Amino acid sequence: MDYLEKITVDELQEILAEVDEKKPVQRILAGIAYKDGVEQQTIAERHDVHPNTVRNWLIRLERLDSEPFESVVYDDPRPGQSRELDEADHDQFIEALHDSPKEVGLDARAWTVPLAQQYLEDEFDIEYCRRHIRRLMSEAGLSWKTARPEYVKADERAQDAFRKGFKKKTDDLDDDYTIIAIDQTRQEITTDLVHAWFPEKTRPTLPVSGAWESLKLLGGVTASGDTFFLKCEDNFTADITTRLLDALQTEFGEKICVVLDNAPYFAANDVHDYVEDTPIELCHLPRGSPELNPAEGCWQKLNQRLGNQLFEELDELREAVFDALASIDPPNIYNYLCP
């Protein structure tokens, strides 16, 4: 019998990040392993339990499709457990949960279990385990889910001002300057499903993976159509940005005019301090304007080239990425920056 057909590995991974007790963790790990194709007998040996226990775990996890994860992965509370908040404090806590944490002086946009735990300790001098706090939050009518993204809308006036300012700046630069637009991307070991042509009246399927490893890239495209790509072993930081700028100078000469967005690692004070005594010119795009960045065009072509392919190893993904980038025709940056 197949289990967890309606539950994805990503959903189990997200739940795992919220679980903090041994048995629930084991159950979620068993579900992830099963979704990755591991046999129940092997899962049982990993956790030193009987195979029937693993089967019971999987049957239990099936309820995630219709029930809150707290009631599925945790056991029932032991008898005698009681709430220590009195009625008035409990009502105050519930009211706070239905407002933004900022309303009670916490520096956050949304509630988490650790944040609610901190609020209870600071406001009422009460210490509850995280499991009990989850139950209180559930009883208060809150559910654990991902917020819908609300992207920053581009300001057309800011975009027009940027185009005029960029044209004036580049017109005033020496002919020795190389104009480079840079950007960042992250390619994961999985299948990026993109539109393609399939036979009619069929429901196509493609193999995917729940692996979380990824390849981080910084890249640039110049006004003359040259490209430069740099893989990052670590997360993007201001230090990585300064190293990229140094690499760009080595590749294209000291005089470079770099177009980049306002990501924290691009706009950091350390980056501006680094370029202060150099001939490097920085042109930051307006917020919410990825469509102005020519480097985005390279990533779009890359995603299309790698789409619908499963990469199971990081080395395999890395080789495919750089092979694809070597064959991509870079966009004309002036079509983006000065249309």
Give an overview in words.
With 339 residues, the chain is an alpha/beta fold. The chain has three domains: 9-73, Arc Repressor Mutant, subunit A; 87-139, no CATH class; 156-337, Ribonuclease H-like superfamily/Ribonuclease H (Nucleotidyltransferase, domain 5, 2-Layer Sandwich). Helices cover 46% and strands 10% of the residues. The chain is built from 15 helices and five strands. The chain has helices at 9-18, 22-35, 40-47, 51-61, 69-73, 87-97, 113-124, 130-139, 156-172, 238-252, 264-267, 269-275, 294-306, 314-327, 333-337; strands at residues 178-188, 214-222, 227-232, 256-260, 281-284. Strands 3-2-1-4-5 form a five-stranded mixed β-sheet, sandwiched between helices. The longest helix has 17 residues, at 156-172. It is globular. Mean pLDDT is 85; it is low at 78-83.
Task: Chart the SSEs and their pairings.
Layout: H1 9-18, H2 22-35, H3 40-47, H4 51-61, H5 69-73, H6 87-97, H7 113-124, H8 130-139, H9 156-172, E1 178-188, E2 214-222, E3 227-232, H10 238-252, E4 256-260, H11 264-267, H12 269-275, E5 281-284, H13 294-306, H14 314-327, H15 333-337
Parallel strand pairs: 1-4, 4-5
Antiparallel strand pairs: 1-2, 2-3
Helix pairs in contact: 1-2, 2-3, 2-4, 3-4, 7-8, 10-12, 13-14
Summarize the structure.
46% of the residues lie in helices and 10% in strands.
Strand order of the largest sheet: 3-2-1-4-5
In whole angstroms, the N-to-C terminal distance is 58 Å
Radius of gyration: 26 Å
Report the order of strands and helices: HHHHHHHHHEEEHEHHEHHH
Find the structural class using helix and strand composition.
alpha/beta
The mean pLDDT is 85
Individual helix count:
15
Number of strands: 5
Low-confidence stretches: 78-83
- CATH level-4 homologous superfamily of the largest domain: Ribonuclease H-like superfamily/Ribonuclease H
Helix coverage percent: 40-55%
